[in-house]
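Section 5.1 Outputs to date
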Amino acid sequence: DDGVMPQTIEAISHAKAAGVPIVVAINKIDRPDANPDRVKQELLSHEVVAEDFGGDVQAIPVSAIKRTNLDKLIEALQLQAELLDLKANPDREATGAVVEARLDRGRGVVATLLVENGTLKLGDIIVAGAQWGRIRAMTDERGAAAKEAGPATPIEVLGLDGVPEAGDRVAVVDSERRAREVTDYRQRKRRQNGLVAGAAPRTSLEDMFSQLKAGQLQTLPVVVKSDVHGSLEAISQGLEKLSTDEVSVRVLHGGVGPITESDVTLAQASNAVIIGFNVRANVQARDMAKRDGIEIRYYSIIYELLDEVKGLLSGMLSPESKEVILGHAEIRQVFSVPRAGKVAGCMVRDGVIRRGSRCRLLRDDVVVYEGHLGSLRRFKDDVREVREGFECGMSIEGYNDIQERDVIEAFEVQEVARSL
């Protein structure tokens, strides 16, 4: 009854970018107002054509609550696997990939793996990226203890000596000595490549255009998020017009709203840069991008965004104005002061807030105003700056539409020489 939601559109974009087939599950058909045909009709506008509409995409109406047609959904997935000739041999040493990993205070390193081939068993010695260990516990998707996991099975394991990265390859080896040799070699290679242990190579515009100039890359992939559809369309069309016979800009996904974890996942999978226009990444997406080395570029003027990409594409790089985020402060209270207007009582969440610095007012991760900080006080004293963890009062020059829970982002612009 909800139709095609924004997250569905994102999933379609991700699947197309990855070049994988789509199987559609139309949920909630147990509701009286359910209309699967309307959903299929809406999917047409996203170039997803169901079989009964003359296309090749399987679309199965289901009810997750009442388990209606779940058997048909499984059959559809099995049919797709047969068409793709997806096969695995369970009678061999296991290989797979890390889905996610974390450090648990009580249990140590906890890694969720997807077995792709072979059978993973309790006690196996595995190498996961630059980490290794002997599996001392296994838990299935229901939280029950397991002794083995076959192909296409997700499994949570304990026993690794360090936290691997999402996407790292996993393989069973025959001895601890062999595991140490492999991980020592990988760690040496990372150090030689100038990578911090546990960090992914940084995907930046400068790196990409260096590859463009060297002939190693012909297409620049980007993910664009904006505050409104009009800006999104203008940016997407402007970027596509920059393409030439030799190089091109490809917009993998465009959407309205804050930058999310799924945007970072798509950028990581496609080696893309994320562009945010008058929006910001949520906390989870920022942490994920920092961990995975994905660059997020923020803009508030369309022609500046297009000029930067055009300048890089043409190889004529002038000194760029690099924005440096100083800190963020959350507004806890708003006061009206005679002859001064609205004053925000804030807590500095990170970094430092400096008097007179440039600033943006963020409401639900969307930019609502950009200007300069006016007064900055601690108790009754004027101060030059306030650091993380301290309370302060501040005002924004010429602007009074501030609310509790808004965030003030302080930044400065530095001139930095650019090179390919």
